[in-house]
Amino acid sequence: MNQEIERKFLLKEMPPGFDPSAGAPIEQGYLAVEPNGNQVRLRKKGETASLTVKHGEGLVRAEHEIELTPAQYAELWPLTAGRRLTKRRCEIFHAGRTIEIDVYGGKNSGLVVAEVEFESAEAARAFVPPEWFAGDISERPEYSNRNLARE
User: Fold this and answer.
1) Are 22 and 60 in contact (CB under 8 A)?
2) CA separation, residue 150 to residues 8, 18, 38, 126, 147 (Å)
3) Domains of the chain, earliest start first
4) φ, ψ dihedrals at 122, nearest 5°
5) Burial classification of residue 132, based on how many CB atoms lie within 10 Å of its CB (0-12 exposed, 13-18 middle, 19 or more buried)
6) Considering the chain, what is the average pLDDT of its residues?
7) 49, 70 in Cβ contact below 8 A?
8) Which residues participate in catalysis according to the annotation?
9) 3-state SS of the chain: helix, strand, coil percent to 5?
10) pLDDT at position 13, please?
11) What gap in Å lies between CA 59 and CA 74, rounded to an integer?
């Protein structure tokens, strides 16, 4: 199983040249969510669909993802009712890292979050955010996608 090592931030302002309309649309729903952070997520990004299982909470989590066919996705999607969100994801590059900027829609409209993935927990802790980042929300459960998806 793979690991996901990630930090999340709110933004003070959009980065120079940022165009949210250029990003990929994402619809995401949750098939199962446990209080300990374990979750089973269904996602469609553009034309690609996947099912992801995540274990744990915090900076480092176990993650396993498999690609789904359009038919598999369509069959599972209704099971996520009441636990869905939409967003548009844009990727930018800064100081040798890819920063994913998620611009949320629907009931989360107006929320913009930056995510940065790392190769180690040490690299994540050593990361110096750009000046246009605001607060680190990595450990704030109200900003987790599984909580943002609740209706």
Assistant:
1) no
2) 19, 28, 15, 32, 6
3) 2-148 (2.40.320.10)
4) -65, -45
5) middle
6) 93
7) yes
8) 30
9) 20, 50, 30
10) 92
11) 31
Q: Report yes or no: 45 and 26 within 8 Å, Cβ to Cβ.
A: yes
pLDDT per residue over 123-136, tens digit each?
999 999 999 999 99
CA distance 105 to 95: 28
Nearest to 69 by CA among 39, 42, 40, 90: 42
Which amino acid, one-letter code, is at 69?
Answer: T
- Predicted pLDDT at 1: 56
Whole-angstrom Cα distance, residue 142 to residue 132?
Answer: 22
Q: Is pTM beyond 0.90 here?
A: yes
Instruction: Identify the pLDDT of residue 87.
Output: 97
Cα 45 to Cα 23: distance, rounded to the nearest angstrom: 10
Share of the chain above pLDDT 90, in %: 82
